[in-house]
Design a protein that fits this description.
This protein is α/β, with parallel strands linked by helices and about 475 residues long. It contains 14 helices and 21 strands. Strands 1, 2, 3, 4, 5, 6 and 19 form a 7-stranded mixed beta sheet that branches. Bound molecules: flavin-adenine dinucleotide. Flavin-adenine dinucleotide (FAD) binds next to helix 1, strand 4, strand 7, helix 3 and helix 8. Keywords: Oxidoreductase.
């Protein structure tokens, strides 16, 4: 599975999650030479994240995990194509830069940890499928920098990937269906989950019943999680948020506050003791690589910047395709359908066939469901009301809410980029991955206009997609033509 990389693949795929795996095996099945690069050590992405390999090297148990049969089929195909020399799978490789010339794409990688062999140089491919997924979307709340506060996805990743429970007495709060598997997972693993606090109201789904009816599997999945929560007697509250995290050197309690019908916190609240706070406000697609190549974008129903693609998952950059969360947050099944279509198109196979039309129908149904989900579970309009002057917005640069407000009120910053320049939000280690959404939303409230696509592009653009050692940069003299 790990033959040395050849200069010149027909198709390279970045990301071995549901979308990238499907794209890679589909292109390989059409006889193309495929390179599959992934930062993780094992295939599956966020959805099919693995527990650690047992010391005896035994197999893992996917029992009860959603779509596990699809995953094992994709993994079998991956091994099969790799065994036949059609597909080079390179786990543990972070892609930090992609560029394009007349022959195709050049892909720069760096190993994600010791023990992974670096590739001998940039990989080259005529066509490129980007399936980098996304990450948790964060909203600041007073006290969220205390140990014991985690993104819901982070708490779940610890559980799935390390079999580690991040606390004993937990609250899972935020908005969207993703809160359910996180709470169910924590409860199944033995945590006392004091509640799932949903900022929205599931009744909002009733405005989107036709879209829901098109994806019955999602209803079944939701019902499964609801049953797990009922089994563990986890209370589910709507229009409820964590409006402050309390504690001195770690989380001691949270303040539970209800929201009015406009999404504004009501005064007061109740103190609830917990030692783990898992906050989930949806996901933010990873757009670094599409933006490095100048691909066109659009703003999705949840306000996220996403890659714009046509009916074959083609971006407006010749030879470049995108699939999965990068084209809009919508779930693993959507990722598999988009990845399969992207794999077909990138391999140069016909896409006016009945199977391709069926894939498009699946994509349309899942996109309609995702849109309904985004509209039913918005970030509450009044979320900034729970911020105090002292609330940290940018954790890396320790920029507080007062500084962001002062950038607007006193220094006339009129957009998120100017706020960033004046306050250093988003200039630290994470390059705005954590605070980018909050800074844009806070600025939008201060200025009274929603961030335009150009503004989102400027805050999501990162010249390097990941931190790299300086020696890696030094190796690539072609990146510095004037030196
Ligand atoms: C933390 C988290 C937890 C989630 N849990 C659930 C859940 O319980 N239930 C549910 O229905 N949905 C869940 N989702 C959503 C679900 O994971 C996605 O819908 C689905 O996995 C999307 O598939 P994808 O292939 O687009 O991306 P992903 O599954 O995110 O896969 C992307 C892959 O690309 C790799 N990658 C990214 N950037 C680079 C790079 N620069 N270089 C190399 N590799 C790169 C990543 O390592 C990853 O393996 C979760 C999402 C997140 C972020």
């Amino acid at each position: 599975m790990n033959a040395p990389p050849e200069p010149g693949y027909d198709v390279a795929v970045v990301g071995a999650g549901p979308a990238g795996l499907a794209a890679a095996v589909t292109a390989a099945a059409r006889g193309r030479a495929v390179l599959l690069l992934d930062a993780a050590d094992r295939p599956g992405g966020q959805f099919w994240r693995h527990p650690p390999t047992p010391p005896d090297g035994g197999g893992e148990d996917g029992h009860g995990r959603s779509g596990w049969g699809t995953f094992t089929a994709l993994r079998r195909a991956l091994r099969d194509h790799a065994g036949r020399g059609r597909l080079a799978y390179r786990p543990g490789q972070q892609v930090w830069l992609v560029t394009r010339d007349e022959d195709g794409f050049l892909i720069e990688t760096t190993p994600t940890h010791d023990g992974v062999e670096p590739l001998p140089g940039p990989a080259r491919a005529r066509r490129l499928v980007l399936a980098p997924g996304g990450g948790d979307r964060h909203l600041p709340v007073p006290g969220w920098t205390l140990p014991g506060v985690m993104a819901a996805g982070g708490a779940q990743a610890l559980l799935k990937g390390q079999r580690t429970l991040a606390g004993r007495r937990a609250v899972v709060a935020g908005t969207g269906p993703f809160l359910l598997p996180v709470a169910a997972g924590l409860a199944e693993a033995g945590a006392e989950v004091v509640g799932v606090w949903e900022a929205g109201s599931p009744l909002a789904w009733t405005r989107h019943l036709p879209a829901v009816a098109r994806v019955p599997a999602k209803l079944a999945e939701g019902a499964g999680y609801a049953a797990a929560l009922a089994r563990h007697r986890v209370p589910y509250r709507t229009r409820t948020v964590v409006s402050a995290v309390l504690g001195e050197d770690r989380v001691r309690a949270v303040r539970r506050t209800s929201l009015d019908a406009t999404g504004t916190p009501r005064p007061g609240g109740t103190e609830v003791p917990v030692d783990l706070v898992a906050l989930g406000w949806g996901f933010t697609p990873s757009l670094e690589l599409p933006l490095q190549l100048g691909a066109a974008t659009r703003v999705d129903a949840d306000g996220s910047l996403v890659a714009a693609v046509d009916a074959d998952q083609r971006t407006d950059v010749p030879g470049l395709y995108a699939a999965g969360e990068a084209t809009g947050v919508g779930g693993a099944a959507l990722g598999v359908a988009e990845g399969t279509l992207a794999g077909l198109a990138a391999a140069g196979a016909a896409t006016d066939t009945a199977p391709a039309r069926r894939l498009r129908a699946t994509i349309r149904a899942h996109r309609a469901f995702a849109r309904a989900m985004h509209l039913a579970h918005p970030v509450p309009a009044g979320w900034t009301r729970w911020l105090t002057d002292d609330t940290v917005v940018c954790r890396c640069e320790e920029v507080k809410c007062a500084a962001v407000r002062a950038a607007h009120d006193e220094l006339a910053a009129g957009d998120a980029r100017t706020v960033k320049m004046l306050t250093r939000t988003g200039m630290g280690w994470c390059q705005g991955r954590m605070c980018g959404f909050a800074t844009a939303a806070l600025t939008a409230e201060l200025t009274g206009h929603r961030p335009a696509e150009a503004e989102l592009r400027s805050t999501a653009s990162r010249p390097l997609a990941a931190p790299v050692p300086l020696c890696e940069l030094a190796r690539e003299a072609r990146l510095f033509p004037s030196t």
